[in-house]
Amino acid sequence: MEPIRVLIVDDHALFAEALAARLGREPDLVILPIAADVRRALALVATERPRVLVLDLTLGAESGFDVLEQVSETHPDVRVVVLTATSGLDALVQAVRGGAVGWLEKTEGADMVARVIRSAARKGGWIPPDVLGEVLRRLRTEEAAPDAGAQLLAELTPREREVLQCMVDGLGRAEIADRLGLSANTVRTHTQNLLAKLDLHSALEAITLAMRAGMRPSHR
Start and end of every HTH luxR-type domain (predicted)? Predict the structure, then answer.
């Protein structure tokens, strides 16, 4: 069987190094250099081609959700397992919506982490059984209630809706600024404001919500 290439993304150096050393003793796992921030994580995903990414959600001042969003968009074949001290169903549901296939708390032992990595690599995954039912209920409720998204979008200003439409169209910040005749900083402000109003944390979530509410890419 081909070894599983694993990238650990965690800014807690001692924890990450200890985990890497322990997982490195597993004969079927190849542990890649550790990434401590978003930029390094994305660079290593592109160059090292991991099969499984073990991701902490807190990366200093940065968010692991940014890694999850961009990896899901650019490398959908990479399987993401969240390993975090962050607790709460909201974060877990957000991670699953963003493309994570596994969720573990850092209190789990390395043997369990290795098992979930193997499961993820085989197209499986892992959600703690005691919360799986509630996670599925929330995901089903979201999919069955597009009107809720429409109500949230109604709270946006016309300019914020224009920015969101550009995001749905697949434009980056500079392209949005060019299309709308705004500065990049102004686009950033509008983006932050609309995410706050929608109670979301990433552009990917905003695009998903917008499309569930009926917004579609325009043809310009």
Answer: 149-214
Is the distance from CB of 64 to CB of 39 less than 8 angstroms? no
| pTM of the predicted model as reported, rounded to 2 decimal places | 0.66
Reported residue count of the chain is 220
Given CATH 3.40.50.2300, say whether it is the number of domain 4-143.
yes
Query: Cα-atom radius of gyration of the chain, to the nearest Å?
Result: 19
Query: How do 62-63 and 58-59 pair as beta strands?
Result: antiparallel
The answer to whether residue 148 scores a pLDDT higher than 70 is: no
Query: Do the Cβ atoms of 33 and 48 come closer than 8 Å?
Result: yes
Count the neighbouring beta carbons within 10 Å of the beta carbon of residue 126.
Answer: 20
**Mean pLDDT over residues 121-132, rounded?**
87
Tens of pLDDT, residue by residue over 52-92, are 999 999 898 888 999 998 998 889 899 999 999 877 788 89
Could you tell me the two tokens for 192? 């932050």
Residue 123 has pLDDT above 90, yes or no: no
The 10 Å Cβ neighbour count of residue 218 is 9
Over 25-53, what HEC string results?
CCCCEEECCCECCHHHHHHHHHHHCCCEE
Instruction: Answer yes or no: is pLDDT of 149 > 70.
Output: no
8 A C-beta contact, residue 110 and residue 6: no
Task: Answer yes or no: is pLDDT of 193 > 60.
Answer: yes
* Intervals of CATH 3.40.50.2300 along the chain: 4-143
Q: Tell me if the domain spanning 148-213 has CATH number 3.40.50.720.
A: no
